[in-house]
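Posting here for the record, re: adenosine-5'-diphosphate.
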Amino acid sequence: MPFKIINTDITKVNTEVIVNAANRSLLGGGGVDGAIHNAAGYELLKECKNLGGCKTGEAKITKGYNLPAEYIIHTVGPVWQGGFSDEEDYLKKCYENSLNIFKSLKLKSIAFPLISAGIYGYPKDKAINIAVSVIKKFLESYDADIFLVIFDRNDFILNNPLFNDLDSYLIKNSVKIPVNNSGVCKIPGNYNINYSLYKKANTDKKFFIDIINNKEICDKNTAKAISIALELDVYNSENFLSECGFSLSDRSDIIFRYFTEKNFYDIFEINKFLFKYGEPLLGTTALKI
Ligand code: ADP
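Prediction output follows.
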């Protein structure tokens, strides 16, 4: 099921759970922690006082009080110390332990901030990679809508050599191609699309099944997500999209084509690049944010 990176204030997010990058006292602090306590209200602090703090890498749950979210999972990220003090393991544990609590309560939607990447000084590119890799692994065995909230777009640093390459590709390919976004709204019948591809398409399971049974309209974004899930190369993906009624035209399409030319089909990674360029991400969550 789907994962999206979004640019907003986590206190406004209407997932069932939001995660707080807390400190060991659990009694509030600066950054996202302060924002969550302010928005949730004094009742949150009262509950937190009874929790007895929290160790680095561990997580504890409270109610959400005045927040749109029903629950808050408080986790304590590591302070960056140059990478020599098991910071990576601790940061992974923050995401894993939060997700384990979430799963044990059979919840379906959760939003994370970029834990440790503020006051605690964790390098942002590394923090993003850890967040995405743990979430990706978790979604292989559990269906949920998971969001990574990036408060300040400038924090979204991708330290990836493909980034410069993609930049020059976009400059070279910026010629406008005639647009066909009419969309026949139907998936062509000659592709063997199995419902189990919903995870690779980063798409809500029910929505995906409705799309392939032509009970739902297939928009261009979903058609591209399905093309990635089917691992269609650049030639076949353009055919597939054209059969769906779309042509590749705008900047997000050129980014899509760049990855299909490279036979690169990891939708989580592609979405990192789309987010970086401020383009819509591929896939569809059940919860609209
Ligand atoms: P830490 O102490 O774990 O580094 P911070 O709160 O200082 O925690 O920062 C963690 C991340 O949360 C940073 O990327 C920061 O920009 C972000 N952040 C701060 N306020 C908010 C907010 N209201 N919503 C979402 N993210 C936020």
